[in-house]
Amino acid sequence: MIPWLISSYQVCFFGIFWDSWIYTYILVIIVVLPTIISIVFNLIIFITVRSSARRIHETTTITVLSETNTSRQQHAREMRLLKHILFMFAVFVLGWAPLFVVLALPSAIYHTIPGWIITSSQIPSAISAVIQVVDLFIYNREIRQYLKERIHHCLGWICA
């Protein structure tokens, strides 16, 4: 909002519209800042899960499994979590970057782009959003269990 007020001020008082800094601002606010926020929150999640798993491991020293087997399982869990975080981050960046790069282009370039390219740059963001929602359903055990019970209940009611 603030950049548009400043650019309106430039047009009203100076009769010029120097808009290249606005597109840099938009790119930073829409692409760079969410990317940094996503990285920070994912690192917090990973560090919290890792420290929690280590605390649990330290308190449960009497187990049937050997020490090396337990630490291998813990390492495997951490690697799966890290891969999942990286996957979700890649889906976010690859899905939303095309749209926001097109939107952050200067108006002189933006108006020369065919409409179908601008429209098709929205498709990856929609696919990204769907992938992220489906992924959250898949990785949330309680939601998965609830959906299985509801589907089983509905199918039992239909078939009966």
UniProtKB/TrEMBL annotation:
Domain G-protein coupled receptors family 1 profile: 1-139
Localization, UniProt: Membrane
Signal peptide: none
Keywords linked to the UniProt accession: Membrane, Transmembrane, Transmembrane helix
Keyword DNA-binding appears in the UniProt entry: no
Superkingdom in the source lineage: Eukaryota
Gene Ontology, cellular component aspect: membrane
Membrane-crossing residue ranges in chain numbering: 20-47, 85-110, 116-138
Gene3D superfamilies: Rhodopsin 7-helix transmembrane proteins
InterPro entries: GPCR_Rhodpsn, GPCR_Rhodpsn_7TM
This protein's record includes keyword Membrane: yes
Chief subcellular location: membrane
Short name of any one Pfam family annotated for the protein: 7tm_1
One MF term in the entry's GO annotations: G protein-coupled receptor activity
Protein name according to UniProt: G-protein coupled receptors family 1 profile domain-containing protein
